[in-house]
Amino acid sequence: MSEPTTATAATSASAADLAARARALDAADELGKHREKFALGGGSGQEDAGVYLDGNSLGALPAHVPARLADVVARQWGELRIRSWDESGWWTAPERIGDRIAPLVGAAEGQIVVGDSTSVNVFKAVVAATRLADGGRDEILVDATTFPTDGYIAESAARLTGHRIVPLDPAGIPGAVTDRTALALVNHVDYRSGRLQDLPGITAALHEAGALAVWDLCHSAGALPVGLDAHGVDLAVGCTYKYLNGGPGAPAYLYVAERHQDRFDSPLPGWNSHADPFGMTPGYRAADGAARGRVGTPDILSMLALEAALDVWDGVRIEDVRAKSLALTDFFLECVRVYAPGGRVTAVTPEAHAERGSQVALRCAEAPAVMAELIRRGVVGDLRRPDILRFGFTPLYVGFADVERAARTLADVLADIPPAGA
Ligand SMILES: *Cc1c(COP(=O)(O)O)cnc(C)c1O
């Protein structure tokens, strides 16, 4: 019986050490001050706020958003009514908010329009990319492990346009792209494993073969630098309710590189994308610029909640966010190794920084029971069936003490839930 005693002593010594390290890291954290911008609960005298590690699925609420949205509803809608399309800036919101997102993804102004869901924007981007591509190219490369909606929509777009889908590991794109490739649709960060793809390298390889690069930024925008312009990305889409904290169902966005805008031919040319929407003419004439990516009347309430939410990024450098994100995920992986040894959980997310997004995915045979119990104990991550525990790290409101507590709670839960088959 002497061995377990030794192991316990070693573990508790490390635990004190990790807790102290967490305090020191939080004290030195320049981004820590942004946490108070969010409504996370647990203020003085309130109940335990818990640890929120699901901002990669639904970002937390910025505390000032309810009052701003209340004004949009009561004054802009309630009092000004139709006048708000002009006087409250409703009509121009899709491009104005696109320009707010632009610096976060490394885009100059005038290339991003906000509206519709990511799924709808994937459809616009894929079909438009086939129309931009040189004739005779009949293949669309798609990330084999893509978030399902991208795969479903690309498949339908391929059937509509007479293309063939080639599923593959994005790392294999440089070796697979040929003169038959029209485009590749790739998730910048894999939603399940947290793997970060080589956007510059893959984009360059596609261009070398004359193909277009369409990137889905759902799990990277707001978490790490993307560099759309710098790397010559052709088209991109992303959602705003994950790391951008826009709220449930917040509108997505579409990036069309300026050099493609004149030839961008939307498969959903709604009246909002017309050069003269209020001309109400029977013939379609596409608007110039990012507005060409619009479809119909924008969902103003969600859109203006998003616009308010983006205020949390004022004065924040995405490079600093990335540095903290890597420090958080490194620290989490280390805490899990110390607290939960014994092979019950295995990291699926790559160790290499260049291949890691802002989440950690752990494979665990008892994942469903473990995640349910973690949430009951105040540590909120999520489950991707059958066996992935997913933890998202949002540097503006997650700190190192949260990370240490999450790993310690995970170890406690594992100790209380017997291994499958035991
Ligand atoms: C979250 C996510 C989506 C979501 O699509 P919606 O149309 O907004 O529901 C799409 N693609 C990826 C890669 C995602 O991570």
TrEMBL record:
Hydrolase listed as a keyword: yes
The EC number(s) this enzyme carries: 3.7.1.3
GO MF, one example: kynureninase activity
Top EC group: hydrolase
Keywords: Hydrolase, Pyridine nucleotide biosynthesis, Pyridoxal phosphate
Lineage top rank: taxon: Bacteria
NCBIfam families listed in its UniProt record: kynureninase (TIGR01814)
Name recorded for this polypeptide: Kynureninase
Organism in which the protein naturally occurs: Streptomyces roseicoloratus
Upper taxonomic lineage: Bacteria, Bacillati, Actinomycetota, Actinomycetes, Kitasatosporales
